[in-house]
Amino acid sequence: MQRKATLCLLQLTLEKEQQQWETWMTKDYLKFTEKEFITANNRDQTIKWITKLAKSFCLGADVVASAALMVDCVLTKVKVPLKCLNCIALSCLYTAGKVLEDAEFMPYSSELIKAARCSYSVQDLTLTERTLVNLLDWDLTPVTLYTFLELLLVITFSPSSSCKALMAQFQPALDAVNANHSLMTTYRPSTLSIAMYALFLEQRSKNMTTGVNILLQFMQIPYDKYASCRDSLVKMLIVNEVLHADGLLM
Length: 250
Known about the structure:
The chain has 250 residues and is mainly α. The protein folds into two domains: 32-136, Cyclin-like (Cyclin A, domain 1, Orthogonal Bundle), CATH 1.10.472.10; 145-248. Helices cover 69% and strands 0% of the residues. It contains 13 helices and no strands. It has helices at 2-25, 40-56, 61-77, 85-100, 109-116, 122-135, 145-157, 163-169, 171-178, 181-186, 189-204, 209-218, 223-239. The longest helix is centred in the first third of the chain and has 24 residues, at 2-25. It is globular and about 55 Å long. InterPro entries: Cyclin, Cyclin-like_dom, Cyclin-like_sf, Cyclin_N. Belongs to the cyclin family. Pfam families: Cyclin_N. Residues 48-134 form the Cyclin-like domain. This is Cyclin domain protein.
């Protein structure tokens, strides 16, 4: 029963991803080459920065994944000067945390600013957050790589309670992908998730490829797109020392 319900949820998530991808993920927000605007490296370094900040407060990997996509969404809708990028990213992290984390574990905005060693005030962060939620049309739960990975694990290793420990094994790879503009704008979260999921399954058994093929069909992901994504993902994870050259996760 749980597996059937999760498959239904996966289908709904794919539909939301389609809308999300068409609305803003296909836009080339880094077309501005002037020095005062954002480059891919600026974006990636900023995501690494909020990832470290999130870990210092023990915020979940789902919070970082959501914040990274919020940053990308904002960058597709407005021209952001480089000097404002950190404030926007911090606001995205704070907003994602308030939505996804239990209130008792979420730091106050003043604590976040202090830990980030920023010159922004609480008022600056609040004003940025108001602008952010309007740019996001109040959709504060974007579909992320984390979203799909969690669903795929529940389908394969139900009950869901046993999947929390498994998700922790993905965090280094998740962090690396979130901070890679090229992968995030070339492949949808669903495609990245099935590629990462397949790598994980291979660590457990070489006989689980049939399950991957069935999911590819269900998710309507062309095999050549999956293969291309997987190759790119493996290369990136090796460069970032998350994956050994022999294909084993570190």
